[in-house]
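Protocol step 4 of 5: obtain the predicted structure for the target chain.
Materials: sequence only (see below). No template structures provided, no constraints applied. The aim of this step is simply to have a reference model before the mutagenesis design in step 5. Sequence pasted as it appears in the construct record:
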Amino acid sequence: MKKVFSKPESLTSKSTIYCPGCGHGIIHRLVAEVIDELQVRERTIGVAPVGCAVLAYYYFNFDVTEAAHGRAPAVATGIKRVLPENVVFSYQGDGDLVAIGTAEIIHAATRGERITVIFVNNANYGMTGGQMAPTTLLGQKTTTTPEGRDVFRDGYPLQVCELFSTIEGAKYLARVSLHSPKEIRKAKKVIHKAFNVQIDNLGFGLVEILSMCPTNWKISPLESLKWIEEKMIPYFPLGEFKRP
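Step 4 output (structure tokens):
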């Protein structure tokens, strides 16, 4: 019988503890498949900060260290500079990367650090109860915006790829989505490119992934896929924003 499926070597066998319909498990799988295909598992180091992302060390079958909230780019920078032959990536949510960690991520990109950033955008603070994040959409209801995000009170959602496209040190920037099998396949190709930018020593790379959070969005997993397509993508368009 022909074998058509196997678990990536870069994933452990631990059962998921993410919420039903969460996108993190899919993203873990994509990252693990890419690392296996690039044959760099033995020299890969992940950095996971506070938030749902902190659970990543349960699932990746290579070294993963934790970082304080928002500080993953700084920790990744230190690791990469001490161990330049290693493949180093951070795995960060939106509240982490563009709220408390704004300074770290912008300056890592400005310096052109040879790291890869996997940025999971689910438009809220997932682990701590669904509060408004910098990426929360206008009108979106969260625990801290029960009547919806208001532009005059809360400002506009932050478009990370568009912002970083002005930074010289950022060499690869792309935004992908998990709302369909077709887009998931595209996401893997983009993650592959981002890691290659680091392996080829070209500079800083970031992949933004629009991901589901049915629990805090208070909708079903199926509805969350439609919500990404109908609500998120019009404001966060998909595509490659910068290539080396």
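Step 4 remarks: Residues 24-242 form a domain with the Rossmann fold fold (CATH 3.40.50.970). The chain has one domain: 24-242.
Proceed to step 5.
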